[in-house]
Specification:
heterodimer; A: 2 domains; 15 helices; about 0% strand; flat; B: mainly alpha; MetI-like fold; 2 domains; disordered N terminus
Chain lengths: ~325, ~300
């Protein structure tokens, strides 16, 4: 009893220390979702009487299907390319014992600093036949005018490569880091058993870093689905109209800020949140990435301790 | 003896030599590919760093990876400073102040949260951790429109506090802190300190905090990298050019000057490709320096402590 009484004020102080983060989590993690749900049935020109059938209105919007095809095409290139390339590169880097490896790793991190508006600037230059550092190669391939490259039909590929180039390097290093966690005994045993480098990579290392690859896959998928900055900047600043409402987020932005239709924008945001949430739940509960959190709840730990005590007795 | 040894030596060396050659062909191809990708990774940044040394005409006609003169940087910097009554200095100041404020608030709140979750016996610990993980894995862009609606309701649109407060929610930092405190400070230390009469707040300030300098460096690193170049949130929340951050300002230079799109028409001060590249350097280079210095921290941190060393 006295212990319980003693614990109460202690926990109170702990809760006070936790409250700044908790407040931020509520205000900017939970409350926006509540506000979005409240906003969904609000009246708008497309939904003059208001109501929950705004989801249907969004699904029938003529701009949604093209945006869906654009984003699906982008994801179909970007996600597999990222996964295969990053895994292959990190395995190659791990198998390499050359002393210059550390400099190569430093170089891989450089594109990660180029994001958002700087990425748009650089890709404009890289793919502009008069400015590009690769203009010799482009001219040799018959590309001499910007119009040959900067077309809406090419945008899926351009944006997929932009995203791939920006993210691949840092993920190579992260997966390389995960490969360092494999015990040397396991690798030695495999080598003694006659494993070649390729067999070692595919049959030993790859299964051991599976959860990190899934983690990357989910983050890459969820991030890719929300592509906005690059097509928006290309459309508004570089080539007007090239990527008008090209992605889901651009459509959501346009609904909110061009049409003032926050009900539809909120509905679309909530619909887009679902795949990201599913991805997050898969990583949390269906992989052992965060098993310390998902398995070791207080009750389970207590049971484990009791079992240990019983065994000792 | 010595003759026998010498006779055997070439034989014993010859065998592995044959093997070595087999391996080296594969290694050679892998090495070439690894170096090729490294060169490819650096070329765009190299262009960005070298472009302001040239004039606008030289950017188009000179070798893209050539250096012209240091005077080019001075000229581009002066032009940028004169643009729109020196608004660039304001963008740099805004980026610095917003990022510093975010780094401080985010790191302190996340560190406290991680400590409380690892050291206390409060209820709903698992629920709290799972909600933090969900927030960590859902891309922040997904909540931008709902956040705009919320900020609009409390009249914080076009107010830097909207960006600072929203970006200070740092679920990744809270989770990283939880892992760090759980792995580095055994619960027995807290228990004995409690027996000695330490309050929970003193547990943090006298035990956990002095042991968490590496964690705080890691938290500050990720908060800085994630927010210095952030475009979307400030772009949505801030409307006056005087409130812009550097990345949003760079975007504004794209659509208000003829640097990239000649159709935009001339500006009173020449803002052309060298000037835009210099503004790009101001956004990209600080992140690059931090990245290069803290490469190992990035790897360890991104895997959220799930790798045991």
């Amino acid at each position: 009893m006295s212990q319980g009484r003693l614990h109460k004020p202690k926990n109170l102080l702990m809760i006070v220390m936790l409250s700044p983060y908790l407040l931020l989590l509520f205000l900017f993690g939970v409350l926006p979702l509540i506000m979005a749900v409240i906003n969904v049935p609000s009246k708008s020109p497309a939904n003059p009487n208001g109501g929950w059938h705004v989801f249907k209105v969004v699904l029938n919007d003529f701009r949604l299907v093209p945006a869906m095809w654009h984003v699906l095409g982008f994801m179909a290139i970007f996600v597999p390319l990222m996964i295969f390339f990053v895994v292959a590169m990190s395995l190659m880097l791990d198998a390499n014992t050359a002393p210059w490896k550390k400099y190569v790793r430093l170089a891989y991190i450089v594109p990660a600093c180029i994001s958002g508006s700087v990425a748009v600037l650089l890709w404009y230059v890289l793919l502009e036949p008069t400015l590009s550092p690769f203009k010799g190669l482009m001219h040799w391939m018959g590309v001499t005018q910007a119009i040959q490259i900067w077309r809406t039909s090419n945008l899926t590929f351009i944006l997929a490569f932009m995203a791939f180039f920006a993210l691949a390097g840092q993920w190579i290093l992260i997966q390389f880091g995960s490969l360092q966690s494999i015990s040397t005994e396991v690798l030695e045993a495999a080598r003694v058993d006659g494993c070649s480098q390729v067999q070692l990579a595919l049959k030993i290392k790859l299964p051991l870093i599976r959860k990190y690859v899934i983690y990357m896959g989910v983050l890459v998928f969820a991030g890719g689905l929300q592509i906005f900055v690059e097509p928006q900047l290309l459309n508004s600043s570089v080539y007007h109209g090239i990527a008008n409402q090209w992605s889901f987020d651009q459509l959501s932005y346009s609904l909110a800020f061009d049409n003032g239709n926050f009900g539809e924008a909120s509905a679309l945001s909530l619909m887009l949140l679902v795949p990201s949430l599913i991805g997050a739940l898969i990583v949390i509960f269906k992989t052992d990435m965060f098993e310390d959190v998902t398995l070791k709840s207080g009750r389970k730990m207590k049971k484990e301790a009791q079992a240990r005590e019983a065994a000792q007795a | 003896m010595s003759i026998d040894f010498k006779k055997k030596l070439p034989v014993s060396v010859a065998k592995p030599k044959r093997k070595k050659r087999k391996v080296s062909i594969g290694h050679y191809a892998v090495n070439v590919w690894l170096i090729f990708w490294a060169v490819l990774s650096v070329i765009p940044m190299l262009w960005l760093v070298l472009a302001p040394s040239k004039t606008d005409r030289e950017v188009s006609y000179k070798n893209p990876l050539s250096f012209a003169s240091f005077h080019g940087y001075v000229r581009a910097w002066k032009n940028l400073q004169d643009f729109n009554s020196g608004v660039l200095a304001r963008w740099v100041f805004n980026s610095l102040t917003y990022t510093v404020a975010i780094v401080i608030i985010a790191s302190v709140t996340a560190s406290l949260a991680g400590f409380v979750i690892s050291a206390s016996k409060i209820r709903f610990k698992k629920g709290f951790l799972i909600s933090t993980l969900i927030m960590m894995l859902v891309p922040p862009v997904a909540l931008v429109i709902p956040l705009f609606i919320e900020m609009n309701k409390v009249n914080l649109i076009d107010n830097p506090f909207s960006v600072i407060l929203i970006s200070s929610l740092y679920p990744f930092g809270a989770f990283l802190s939880y892992i760090y405190y759980s792995n580095t400070i055994p619960p027995e230390i807290y228990e004995s300190a409690r027996l000695d009469g330490c309050s929970d707040f003193k547990l943090y300030t006298r035990i956990a905090f002095p042991l968490s300098y590496p964690l705080l460096a890691l938290l500050a690193f990720f908060a800085f990298v994630g927010n210095w170049g952030n475009y979307f949130m400030p772009y949505i929340m801030l409307q006056s050019p005087t409130n812009y951050t550097l990345p949003v300002g760079l975007g504004a230079l794209f659509f208000s000057t003829p640097a990239i799109n000649p159709g935009n028409g001339a500006t009173s001060v020449p803002i052309l490709k060298p000037e835009i590249a210099l503004a790009g350097i101001l956004v990209a280079v600080p992140v690059m320096i931090v990245f290069l210095i803290s490469q190992k921290r990035l790897i360890r941190g991104m895997l959220a402590g799930s790798i045991k060393e």
